[in-house]
Every structure is written in structure tokens, then in C-alpha cells.
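User: Here's a chain of 323 residues. Predict its fold as C-alpha cells.
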Amino acid sequence: MRLLMEVRNLMENYHVKSGMYHYFRNEYKPAEDFLQKALKDENGLSEADRRNARHYLTLSLVDSSDKLRSEGRLEEGVERLQRAVEVSPSFPDIHFRLGRLYEEMDRIDEALAEYERAIDCNQRYLAAHVARGFCLLRAGRSDEATEVMRGALKIKQNQTKRPFDMAVRLLGQGATAEAVELFHEAFESSPQLCAEYRKSALARLDAGDYPRALSDFERAAQACPKYPDIHNFRGIVLFELDRVEEAVEAFRLSVSLSPRYLVPRLNLAFALLRAGECRQAEAELELILEQDPSEQAAAAKLEELRTGRFPERRRPSSRGSAG
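Assistant: Prediction complete.
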């Protein structure tokens, strides 16, 4: 998930901020260098900065691998993903991507091992189950592939049945609007389509093309309405377009879908401040600090509020890149 620029500017550690700055400019090597320097400072790094450093180092390595793969430099792409695994071993998508790369290189046994690791990290990772099944077929292991594909079918059926059953119950209670959302999730959700729109939207966001980025994020949200990261990105784009009240609602939705994650709640607090809702913002900042007392941006903004220096509402103006 991504933080608003106003939040990032209040982060404490120079190397973490610099690493994030370069990452959002798609400058992966300097991003890696700064973030690795940050992580070497075991004693001087707050828990919040350590978490951000590990997260953005992982993203830098993964995105760097994607770039190398597109250039046909598969061995180097594998090396980046192996380093990403060292930083974030329980992140299933890294193992899945590594499996894909190994398949492209005809290293089938290694691909299967990575798909299995992805599934160990997330038993309901449908794409990893399906990829493992096809990989087993490619290896001539038909009986094993059949069992894996049967398991994948159960996961896919459950992904439809769970929201369908909830929708029927809500409809019986007269909650039609909520039921409609769940029927949409059951029959029209498409993770693959969501990923395609997300990729296009991120490129447009980084280029500062906010209207078209918003359009793509809206399409991604239609394809996967329960994906909290998409709503967080929608909020960032709406904030950059000075549609602050809509940004607040997008961040609220992201928070409701991912209450354990601090990023959308931080963005919500800062958006509430921009909207002039200082008391609500203060309450959100307090919740953040209860969950993580080391969160410097929240602490700094809360101190600012308590000293009475309330921010003014922002008038529409042209802005640079969201980063």
C-alpha cells in the first residue's frame, strides 16, 4: 500500500524516505541502496521505519525483477526475487513470480517448489494452485496434477459460494444494497482483470495523469471490490485531484477492508485534516499510535494538532507527481 506524500514527508529516517522517493520514481537500484542502509541501523531505526524499509525494499526487488524479465534477463530476474524472498519470506506472490520465471527457464522442479512455497504461505492462493497443476502436467505427472486441479476447483467454487450465501441471507433481511455488492463479488469479480487495470493505473499515477489513473482504479475496483489496496490508491488519486471528501470515503473503505494495516488509516487521518475534520483526524491518529507507538508521522501530526496549529482547507491547485 502507498502513503500520501504528506505522510511520507513526516517520516523520521532519511534513508527510508530516500528509498521510497526513488522507488516511486522507478529508480530501483538507488531505492535498494538507501533501504538496505536503513535496515543496517538496527538500533536507530523505529519499528515503523523498519517495517516500511522492508516493505519497499521487497517491492523494489520485485519490480526490478519484472523489468529484467521484460528485457529477457531471466537469470538476473531470478536473483532479484531470491533476494526479495530473503527480505520477505512469507510473501506468497514472490514465490509465485519466482515459480513463473523458473518455468520460463524450463527449471520445472524449482518452479514446482516455489508454487508449493506460495501455497504454504497462503492455502487459498488460487493462481498458485492452478500454476502448480499445469506445471505438474508439463512434467508428465498427471495423477498429481488432477488432485491439485480438483483442489483449485474447490477454492474457486468457494470464492463464489461464500459471497453468494451471504448475499442471499442479507436479501432475506431486506439489506438489498449490501446483497447487490456481494452478488457482484460472487459473479463479476475478476482478479486477473483487476491486476491489469491496477498496472495501467499505477503507471498513470506515477506519470501524474490522475484522471486516467482514477478511471483505471475505478475499473480495478469493479473487478475486485474487496481489494483494500485498490481503494487506498483511489483515495490517493482523488486527494491529488482535490476531491478530498471522496478521498476520505475511499480511505475509509480501505480501512474497513484491512483494519490491521496502518497505511490506509494514516492516509485517512491526513485526508480528514485536509477536509477540516480535525477531531475525526485526531481520533484516527490516536488509534494508529495505540497500534504502533513508533509511527513518527502520526505522532508528529498529532502533536501539531494538540498545539492548535490546525491546517487550512486546501484550495484547488495544480500539483506535481504523487510519487
